[in-house]
Design a protein that fits this description.
Blueprint lengths: L1 E3 L7 E8 L12 E2 L3 E10 L2 E15 L6 E16 H5 L2 H5 L5 E5 L3 E3 H12 L35 H12 L1
The structure holds zinc ion (2 copies).
One zinc ion binds next to loops.
């Protein structure tokens, strides 16, 4: 969904859309969507600046950094963005005018790409490090077993004699 600024009535337009998970195209490799995305907000044109604020809500899935288990996370985020056209931004007055709370982006001056905003906000809402649980034990680098679900012989420092016998059998060849 693109909102053309020439179509804004009285300088503003509201938007609301439910995106099916495949409608937003591919995300990065890390993140996938589990549920449709509900997005809504308002675009306002004030002089040479465009303000976009709104809300996105969905559920995303990412892999645990340690054990690669799929972890589902709720995404429920408000956003507030400010856009200026290239020339306005270069005049640098815009930078001074803008509130530090807002992130300023440069755009072509013609339209706001709501799809891009929604994708960006979902990626921002997903933490860069994700664990399935705080004490995730990860995967054994030697045998590949998920140590949350079972123990393996390799992690035992003092090798249990029964395991030792087994290991000798399997590795002895
Ligand atoms: Zn994990
Ligand atoms: Zn192991």
């Amino acid at each position: 969904m693109r909102i053309e600024l020439v179509n804004l009535e009285h300088g503003r337009a509201d938007f609301a859309h439910v995106y099916q998970p495949d409608e937003l195209g591919s995300f990065d490799d890390r993140v996938s969507l589990v549920e449709p995305v509900t997005a809504n907000g308002t675009v306002r044109l004030v002089g040479a600046e465009v303000f976009v604020n709104g809300h996105v809500k969905t559920r995303a899935a990412v892999e645990c950094d340690r054990c690669l288990t799929r972890v589902e996370l709720p995404v429920d985020a408000d956003f507030e963005l400010e856009y200026v056209t290239g020339p306005t931004y270069e005049s640098s007055e815009a930078a001074e005018l803008s509130d530090e709370e807002l992130s300023v982006s440069v755009f072509d001056g013609e339209a706001i790409d709501v799809d891009e905003i929604v994708k960006e906000q979902i990626l921002l809402a997903v933490p860069t490090r994700t664990l399935c649980r705080p004490d995730c034990k990860g995967i054994c680098p030697d045998c590949g077993i998920d140590k949350n679900t079972g123990d393996c012989a390799c992690e035992t420092k003092e090798v249990d004699p029964r395991w030792a016998a087994l290991r000798n059998l399997t590795s002895g060849k």
